[in-house]
Design a protein that fits this description.
By secondary structure, this protein is of the alpha+beta class. It has helices spanning about 50-65, 85-95, 145-155, and strands at about 5-10, 15-20, 20-30, 35-40, 45, 70-75, 100-105, 110-115, 120-125, 130-135, 170. The strands form two sheets. Strands 6-11-10-9-8-7 form a six-stranded mixed sheet, with helices on one face. The protein has a five-stranded antiparallel sheet with strand order 1-2-3-4-5, with helices on one face. Strand 8 and strand 9 form a beta hairpin. The longest helix has 14 residues, at about 145-155.
């Protein structure tokens, strides 16, 4: 069992430790009205909930298992070998017309679409109708929770865009 600690630096900032090593920072984001985890292993934040208690519960659940539950990132152009993880297959499989829920908005001058795919328990982000990234959520995350996160991202216009050749796949175990 992993040891997880949240060490309070201030009302809006906590250091997160996993097995006595620094894992990242949990910070309150006023613009999103939500807590954001900034794991050291990735160059991006993960938005959670308005409630600190609910956020900590979910993060503990994510990290409580074994090492497989940590964030893993790979660029499919360089590292993935399976047939499914090629740009064209991803683009076909995650065409926003095939999504269970789809919504678009404009933010910072960018045309953004977010799509929820129940089959994969995943949220995909598109810029100007081009697939940019996909986040797969671990099976412990119930589909209802991922749908709620999808709705929250729409409401708060929360999205991540990556500068990569191809599609960036982010898996959360």
């Amino acid at each position: 069992m992993n040891e997880i600690k949240f060490i309070k630096n201030s009302e809006e900032n906590y250091m997160v430790e996993l097995n006595k090593e620094r894992y990242g920072a949990l910070e309150w984001d006023q613009d999103q009205n939500a807590w954001v985890l900034w794991p050291l292993a990735i160059n991006d934040g993960v938005t959670y909930f308005e409630s600190l208690k609910e956020t900590i519960t979910y993060i503990k659940d994510e990290l409580a298992g074994n090492e497989e539950r940590r964030f893993k990132i790979f660029n499919i152009d360089e590292e993935a070998s399976s047939y499914f993880f090629t740009d064209e297959n991803l683009k076909n499989e995650f065409n926003f017309y095939k999504s269970d829920k789809l919504a678009g908005f404009e933010a910072n001058g960018k045309q953004i679409k977010l799509a929820y795919f129940a089959k994969y328990n995943a949220i995909a982000t598109y810029e100007r109708n081009k697939l940019n990234n996909i986040v797969f959520y671990m099976s412990a995350w119930q589909p209802e929770t991922v749908r709620e996160m999808f709705e929250s991202r729409l409401k708060n216009k929360v999205f991540n865009l990556y500068q990569v050749n191809g599609v960036k796949v982010v898996k959360i175990y």
